[in-house]
Write a structure and sequence with these properties.
alpha/beta, Rossmann fold, seven-stranded parallel β-sheet, 39% helix
């Protein structure tokens, strides 16, 4: 099959197996080029391990610290004339690289919100690793079937209380326009909290702890974002923000449990990056396009893998003592939120139009990173050649 990118709005409906593997290898090569993470994790569970920050976490732990990793994800293999999801191919690429390096990896594909997948994961840890010393919670899902009630909760990205109007960009067509997002009702807010809040993280930690598969000094971290005030109405002060508030609540509750035996839990506030989740949020793609231009010019730009390596190497391990804000979160968005970076963005924001988009932003960099998520635009891949989409999970 010859596989080309087919972009529909903020999503690409195709993925390239060889390209995804090459992208994973790029991230592995970056971690291997950095100093080893001393006193790093050795047995790691990553919940949401197939793309974005979760995948970067797994790669950093494995190739930066020699860790055995268990990855939980929900991805689909190829079907008839349609290739598999990028996370399917990413995970195969990771598993092959880990095996070649002599590293243990276990892949569990299914609904991470379910009790069944939690039980399957615990059984695998007991059988192969005994315990884990780090649990990464990096789930991003549009829906959740609650394991106790059976209710289907669906996520939405909306402001609260009032409509929000601002600029956005169609990253595929390069059109800058105004967008108005209507406010969420109370039921929608509750649904987003159920999907993207901290309840499932707590359920995972409780299940792992009760089953005896958490090491006494185990750490757990979940990822979040705050961003600048230009995005707050639809993010920090919107439905997602309410869910992230609940994630903070869960972090404190989990931390109180883990610290009894010498462990800890916290939320890491990360930088705005091109991910499948961020691409779906109105206003945010335009902000990221401007941010990339400013940070690249300043020499401080990081992608997913650079962010996660820095989190591990300077906030969690190597004898480092993590610095926390007043809410108890560690901040690796610190370079993004530097006053001079944000001031430069505020100057550019009102000037951006369809006509000057290429000049004032790094929309080209945004598009490149977007397509890389699906395995396209990687050096050394012949995208005009036949490729085999039907790859089994390893």
């Amino acid at each position: 099959m010859i596989i080309k990118p087919k972009v529909r709005g903020f999503f690409c409906i195709t993925a390239h197996p060889e390209g995804c593997a090459a992208h994973v290898q790029e991230w592995i090569d970056y971690v291997k080029s950095q100093p080893p993470i001393e006193s790093g994790p050795k047995k790691v569970l990553v919940i949401g391990s197939s793309t974005g920050y979760g995948l970067a976490s797994r790669i950093t732990a494995a190739f930066g610290s020699g860790a055995a990793t268990v990855g939980v994800f929900y991805e689909k293999p190829s079907q008839e004339d349609r290739p598999g999801t990028p996370g399917w191919y990413n995970t195969i690429g990771f598993a092959r690289a880990a095996k070649k390096a002599g590293l243990y990896s276990k892949n569990i594909n299914g609904d991470a919100f379910s009790d069944e997948i939690k039980k399957e994961t615990i059984a695998a840890i007991k059988a192969d690793l005994g315990q884990v010393d780090l649990v990464i919670y990096s789930l991003a899902s549009p829906r959740r079937v609650h394991p106790k009630t059976g209710i289907v909760h669906k996520s939405c990205i909306k402001p609260i209380a009032a409509p929000y109007t601002n600029k956005t960009v169609d990253t595929d067509k390069g059109i800058v326009s105004m967008v108005t997002v209507e406010p969420a009702n109370d039921e929608e807010v509750a649904d987003v909290i159920a999907v993207m809040g901290g309840e499932d993280w707590e359920m995972w930690i409780d299940a792992l702890s009760t089953s005896g598969v958490l090491a006494p000094s185990a750490q757990s971290v979940a990822y979040s974002y705050i961003g600048p005030d230009v995005t707050w109405p639809v993010y920090k002060e919107g439905t997602i923000g309410r869910a992230k508030d609940d994630l903070d609540r869960a972090a404190h509750a989990i931390d109180n449990k883990l610290k009894v035996t010498g462990g800890r839990a916290f939320v890491s506030i990360n930088k705005a990056l091109v991910t499948q989740s961020s691409s779906a949020i109105p206003v945010v793609p335009l902000y990221i396009s401007i941010l990339y231009k400013i940070m690249k010019e300043a020499g401080t730009h990081e992608g997913c893998i650079e962010q996660l390596y820095r989190l591990f190497a300077t906030h969690m391990y190597n004898g480092k003592t993590a610095q926390f804000d007043k809410a108890g979160r560690t901040r690796v968005d610190d370079w993004e939120m530097r006053p001079e970076i944000q001031e430069a963005i505020r100057v550019i924001w009102p000037k951006v139009t369809t006509e000057n988009l290429e000049e004032l932003t790094d929309i080209a960099g945004y598009r490149s990173e977007f397509l890389k998520m699906f395995g396209f635009g990687l050096d050394g891949i012949d995208y005009d050649a036949d490729t085999e989409p039907n790859l089994p999970m390893e």
